[in-house]
Specification:
- The protein contains five helices and nine strands, in the order βββααβαβαββββα.
- The protein is α+β, with helices and mostly antiparallel strands and about 180 residues long.
- The chain has a single domain (about 50-175), classed as Glutaredoxin.
- A hairpin with a 4-residue loop joins strand 1 and strand 2 (about 45).
């Protein structure tokens, strides 16, 4: 059964974006490298994509409505990312087993990576110590573009409940990099 993807546009909502000055990740810096397992149990490293732009999307939890909206937006517009020579990677702290079911049910056409040990989320300053319902160590909704040489070219941390990354700004930056 395919879950319903929300279509209500929230890109122009009241946003609370964390400023780059208060983030550990800075534009132009070398992106922290990582190796994580994907939903198909394969190891995936950022270094695997040298020579391509990479859009990294951290999201809190598989199957939640806002995460599903965010990732369905990317799924439905995957040609734009392919045309920009960009690989999309979704990262959450969910297990590979949860991500497998989520990917299969939603038909995502890009890798979902499990940061179960929370190391990559922390390296990208994208980890809530405390989240809803007393959950500890959940990925923050954030977006990063890593250029073909491995440097951060875009960083956005979305702190507003139910908001998604600014895909217009992301797409503009990818166009500029291509």
């Amino acid at each position: 059964m395919l879950l319903f993807c929300l279509t209500k546009c929230r890109y122009n909502c009241n946003r609370n974006i964390k400023s780059l000055n208060s983030m550990n990740i800075q534009i132009g810096q070398k992106a922290p490298d990582f190796t994580l397992y994907d939903s198909e149990r394969n190891k995936v490293s950022l270094a695997d994509f040298k020579g391509k732009n990479v859009l990294i999307l951290f999201y809190p939890q598989a199957f939640s409505s806002t995460c599903t909206e965010e990732l369905c937006t990317v799924r439905d517009d995957i040609a734009r990312y392919s045309n920009a020579n960009a690989q999309v990677l979704g990262i959450s702290v969910d297990s590979i087993f949860t991500l497998k079911r989520y990917r299969d049910e939603q038909g995502y056409n890009f890798p979902l990576l499990s940061d179960f040990n929370k190391e990559v989320s922390a390296a990208y300053d994208s980890l809530y110590e405390n989240w809803i319902f007393d959950m500890k160590g959940v990925s923050k909704r954030s977006a990063f573009i890593v250029d073909k040489e491995g440097h951060i070219q875009y960083a956005e941390l979305v702190e507003t409940k139910d908001a998604v990354p600014d895909f217009a700004a992301i797409n503009q930056r990818l166009t500029e990099l291509n």
